[in-house]
Amino acid sequence: MSATTGSTTTKQTTIEADPEVPTITMTREFDAPPERVFQAWVDPELFVQWIGPRSIDTRIEHWDARTGGSWSYTAEREDLHETFFGSFHEVRSPERLVQTFTWGGEPDSVSLETLRFEPLEGGRTRIVGVSVVESMELRDLILSSGMEVGVNEGYEKLDELLARG
Amino acid sequence: MSATTGSTTTKQTTIEADPEVPTITMTREFDAPPERVFQAWVDPELFVQWIGPRSIDTRIEHWDARTGGSWSYTAEREDLHETFFGSFHEVRSPERLVQTFTWGGEPDSVSLETLRFEPLEGGRTRIVGVSVVESMELRDLILSSGMEVGVNEGYEKLDELLARG
């Protein structure tokens, strides 16, 4: 699961399913400091430019990126119109972001997502995201949904956004 | 872990740790319909009357019980002053409530809590609450914290509140 863009070095996104608990852990490095990568997650004008696969457009419906706030957006292409919603449990800039996440089509399946932004040498950042759900079945269903396409293409777009400065 | 009060029949609260996943499941029945039990969870004036052990007073700091809202409260007695906070991920009255939960003293330990309100014969309700965290270690730490005292005494107080009508 590696991604190459024209403007940056090849970057590897690691997506791991824990064998013991129903979590998915994603790890990725970016060529920008934590403050800028964090900002791309919480500023809705930046977020819509990179989230998800290249084939969809994201439209923010609601966005209040503070501890105790919430969000919702729609992912759209010709044949698709999907809503997603959740809460910002904690926004601790620039190191930690804890959110809930639900696809509107399956509202009883909720993920709790914790994202850590770790500073690296040279003004770079490693993000480590852990999603947990209630059961192994749901975790495996999420993994088999093709999520890695959206993750990899999204992170490529985020590389491009960060390179534009 | 049973609880008896003067005014109601003996009720059993079941607190189960799943052997496979880091969840805690709590089950309890109440002598009131789902609408009234749900209301006792989302109305802050009712909530403070029953949440937690008998030895503490609960003071609401913030309360916005709607999908995408959030909450925080303080638990107080002479030697104690603890804050708790979280989000209302979904408020689906009167059947389902999904929240995040954090003790302020350990802000990196977050639970995702789903509460179902199941109607029973005779205008009664069974609640089934599932809390999930990222690791077995954190789940076992929560279980060993003496949480069952607050849960059992709280549910006794809720019985009394519901009996007062």
From TrEMBL, chains A, B:
Signal peptide (UniProt feature, chain positions): none
Pfam families: AHSA1
Superkingdom in the source lineage: Bacteria
The Activator of Hsp90 ATPase homologue 1/2-like C-terminal domain, residue ranges: 31-162
InterPro entries in alphabetical order: ASHA1/2-like_C, START-like_dom_sf
Family according to the record: Belongs to the AHA1 family.
Protein name: Uncharacterized conserved protein YndB, AHSA1/START domain
Taxonomic source organism: Nocardioides szechwanensis
